[in-house]
Amino acid sequence: MSDNLVQLDVKDRIATVTLNDPKRRNPITGNAMIAALLDTFARVQADPDVSVMILTGADPAFCAGGDIKEMNDPESVFRKEPLAASQCYVDGVQLLPQALYNLDIPTIAAVNGAAVGAGCDLTMMCDMRVASEKAKFGEVFLNLGIIPGDAGSWFLLRRLGHQMAADLTYSGRMVEADEALKLGMVLEVVPHDQLMDRARERAAVIAAKPPRAVRIAKRLMRNAERMDLPDFLNAAAAYQALMHQTEDHKEAISAFIEKRKPNFTGR
């Protein structure tokens, strides 16, 4: 799959998805990257043998967002009349946040380099972020006279809170890895050559849990973002009742009592 724009590797219940257009710094507009990512996310979602996904970029960048050079192209979305341009967003880049949001497995962004514009937003669409010391983040849309058209504001606000999301959005400044850690944008910063090993270590912890329970836990957290408490409690009770009937739950209890490592089967 080395010639593909997106590479997918599945091992030990961990799916590793790599944006693979390094010469162009892995942009997600102006090429087939969006379609390739959507296809890959759909394959990951449909695979019952996957419990967690790592999203990263081929060095040197994570994702440069939009290709600025193509913004002057008369055929690009930036030069279409408003209704046509709006539909291009609906049918294009806006499908990415929906696909990532609807994944039933946890997602970890392994940010190996610059994550700029839509690339920064792509990291925020993931549940967790681990950064290389070479990582940097930039919500730079206003610098180009545009706004985040890909749901970046929705995710940034929820990940960082209003004040910090406002600072990054209105200033358009770049955030280096160490500051990203202080701001809570990432869980940790590691040496560049250790990034994927560390991301896989985190993923392996999740992959070792009962597969069905992992997916339901992700769904429950997603529900918590949009439900009021009474509706959420009803959903939690229903999901919990289902979990009681799984073989993995019974195996977990038996393993705990017998003081042994559980053998989860996803049933």
Quick tags:
2 domains; 11 helices; alpha/beta; 2-enoyl-CoA Hydratase, Chain A, domain 1; 267 residues; 3-stranded mixed beta sheet; 9 strands
Number of helices: 11
Low-confidence stretches: none
Percent of residues in helical segments? 40-55%
Tally of distinct domains: 2
Which homologous superfamily in CATH is the superfamily of the largest domain?
Answer: 2-enoyl-CoA Hydratase, Chain A, domain 1
| CATH architecture grouping of the largest domain | Alpha-Beta Complex
Overall average pLDDT:
94
Number of strands: 9
Instruction: Give the C-level CATH assignment of the largest domain.
Output: Alpha Beta
Q: Describe the largest sheet.
A: 6 strands, mixed
H and E string: EEHEHHEEHEEHHEHEHHHH
Coarse morphology? globular
Distance between the termini: 31 Å
Strand order of the largest sheet: 1-2-3-4-6-9
